[in-house]
Amino acid sequence: MLKGIGTTEMKERNAGNTQAVYHRRLRSLYLFMIWIGFSTLAFAQQIPVKSRVNVHERVECDVYFKWGLLMPKAGQATISVNEGRYQAKPGYNYKLLFRTTGMFERIFKMRDTLESNFTQNFQLIKNQKRALEGNRYMIDNLSFTPMNNQTQVHSHRYSLRETKIDTVMYAKGIVLDMLSAILYLRSLDWNKMSSGDEFPITVPVGRDMVNVRFRYNGQAIVERGENVKYKTRHFYIDIYDEAFTQSKEAAEIWIGDDENHIPVRIRAKLKIGTAEVYYKSSSHLRYPLNSRVEIR
Predict the structure, then answer these.
(1) DSSP H or E segment with residue 287
(2) 268 vs 246: CA distance, rounded Å
(3) Closest by alpha carbon to 277, among 73, 80, 41?
(4) Which of 246, 261, 232, 256 is nearest to 47 (CA)?
(5) 190-247: per-residue pLDDT in tens?
(6) Half-sphere exposure of 141 (CA within 13 A, CB side)
(7) Which of 5, 8, 80, 228 has CA 20 to 30 A from 182's CA?
(8) Beta bridge partners of 203
(9) DSSP 272
(10) Which residues lie below 8 Å from residue 290, measured CB to CB, with a gap of 6+?
């Protein structure tokens, strides 16, 4: 026993440390999810993905958190495409819902909603993130305005009591919110790509413009159990943000190798452990899920 510290006090401190560790893990998981969470020229801000997606498309994923030899299920994520309206004009709504499950639900409950609004040509207009973490509720609004070969982004973060961030930023090149990066990958023409090709984008996060780079790594097989495999296209993701342990290859994503181009697996190396996202099920896809192979 340490001098000056009784058994009861030591137990209380250890319990407090365990709680803090779980909170750090969940915070890291949340930062990763918003990347799954996780376009063409900047002045257009259009993503040529209309031929890939289908209205009412829905993809369900399971989220795991790996720490040492343990990899418990941490939550569920749902990504959907629906018709929508923004400022009375018709368009599309791309949404991600995330919720914790199991022991993570008991320790630190999270309910996150990310929504991206597009015109009928999939021109990015706005993104909103509504995050409930424990007892804290926060809203992030991002508005995208193309101007003079660059993109203006108005970032507004606020709680129910006060404004945290209210700023305007500018960037050249491809500028997307975190959720729209999925559509960006789905829009790529793999017949025109070679292993090693790079696709840089800029992602606004709070008051910062974060540099992200996708690197194509060719074809790969993702196994799910003994009887199911998925044919995929593999990408490394370089993310220059402090939430990740390393910038280069901070994350990886496997996209189904069929006409739908939906995410099959995502993995991110966080400061505490690793987050893993696996495809679970889908409905209303535009094309058959030919990337899935069942071995009987």
Answers:
(1) none
(2) 10
(3) 73
(4) 261
(5) 999 999 999 999 999 999 999 999 999 999 999 998 899 999 999 999 988 765 556 7
(6) 10
(7) 228
(8) 210
(9) S
(10) 231, 258, 259
